[in-house]
Design brief:
Elements lengths: L2 H19 L7 H4 L4 H11 L7 H13 L4 H27 L13 H15 L1 E2 L2 E2 L2 H6 L2 H6 L3 H10 L1 H12 L2 E6 L2 E6 L1 H7 L5 H14 L4 E2 L2 E2 L3 H17 L4 H20 E2 L2 E2 L14 H13 L6 H13 L6 H9 L7 H7 L2
Antiparallel strand pairs: 1-2, 3-4, 5-6, 7-8
Length: 355
């Protein structure tokens, strides 16, 4: 932290302390409107250190104190501030504890990075399901500390003895609303959906419904390293749930900013796949061009069960074009997808198959 940053934080802290000590009766009537509860909370957040994980429960506790029974509008406005602070603090802690770039003055945190990675890899490697090592998809979905608590006592003791210091720190991260996720072979930290859901318990109105919906949906990760971590059917169900939420909550800004962009991305995946999970076998010169059987079944379920979806005609057209061509990727399908604004992986395949 620079001298300027320290001075700024000190000034904000002094201002907030002064404001919190002043009663409304001491404030001139014409100035009272400026000191709204949301403003007070915003100033309070400004006094917290976003490089310290303990700031997250402090921010949550203050939100509950000030807004637990407040009107829905004030709750939503304040919780948006909390959520922004929460996400920013998680990003900062991720940089400090799990990555190489450490700000000046915080080098002492860097010593934990390799210890954390080693401890989490040890726990993940020891995680077993149904008597065998958990499959890779399961490892990407489960937080190692959750797995650790379910392990055999002898295994836990062995890991505790080897990684005592790291485990103590990692548990503190979890207590502060941070979970651990595996991505491309390394461990990172992220917002804990369960913690977020608990923090939003008292939120009223549509914004509260949005937070609880988002937290619930975030418990299952969708993709990593350009590969799906869910089945095609799970992806279909996610699309339908998100579409229905957007339809029933058109007025909150998060629908436009978060729900709809995510929905469009998932529909793209559902129609063409992503880099390492393709909808059609069109990778390399040995690909057959065939539609993934699981996705074919999912399309058929979509057409039978999701008649109220706004994407029904799109999925129906894709299915019919594929069916006409033996469920093999083709130029007609490639052109149709592109004309509807979806990127494809099929240009090279189409060029080779039409020579």
């Amino acid at each position: 932290m620079t001298a300027i940053d320290a001075h700024r934080r000190g000034m904000i802290a002094a201002l907030v302390a002064a404001l919190l000590l002043v009663t409304p009766r001491e404030i001139p009537a014409q100035r009272r409107y400026e000191l709204t509860p949301v403003l007070r909370y915003s100033l309070f957040l400004g006094t917290l250190d976003s490089m310290n994980r303990e700031s997250i429960p402090a921010a949550s506790k203050e939100f509950q104190r000030q807004f637990g029974s407040a009107p829905a509008g004030d709750q939503a406005e304040a919780f948006r501030l909390f959520l922004g602070f929460y996400r920013n603090t998680v990003r900062t802690c991720d940089m400090l504890a799990f990555r190489d770039a450490v700000p000046e003055g915080y080098e002492r945190f860097h010593r934990y990075r390799k210890d954390f990675q080693s401890a989490l890899h040890t726990i993940s490697s020891a995680d077993t399901t149904s008597g065998g090592v958990a499959d890779s998809r399961e490892k990407y979905q489960r937080d190692p500390l959750d797995s650790f608590e379910d392990m055999d006592d002898n295994v836990k003791k062995r890991i505790e003895n080897r990684h005592a210091l790291s485990l103590r720190e990692l548990r503190d991260y979890r207590r502060c609303g941070i979970r651990f996720i595996l991505s491309e072979g390394d461990w990172y930290i992220a917002v804990d959906p369960l913690y977020l859901e608990k923090a939003a318990t008292e939120l009223k109105g549509e914004y509260g419904e949005f937070i609880r919906f988002s937290a619930s949906e975030s418990m299952l990760r969708m993709a990593d390293d350009a590969a799906l971590l869910v089945t095609w059917e799970e992806l279909r169900n996610r699309i339908i749930r998100r579409e229905r939420f957007a339809r029933s909550h058109p007025d909150i800004p998060e629908t436009e900013k978060e729900i709809l962009p995510g929905l469009r991305r998932w529909v793209q995946w559902y129609l063409v796949g992503i880099d390492n999970t393709r909808a059609y076998d069109i990778v390399g010169r040995t690909g057959t061009g065939k539609l993934d059987p699981g996705l074919k079944n999912s399309y058929e379920a979509f057409l039978a069960e999701n008649r109220d979806s706004g994407y029904l005609s799109l999925v129906a057209d894709v299915y019919e074009i594929a069916k006409r061509n033996g469920f093999v990727y083709n130029k007609e399908l490639n052109d149709f997808l592109k004309s509807n604004g979806f990127g494809t992986y099929g240009d090279e395949w189409v060029e080779r198959s039409t020579r």
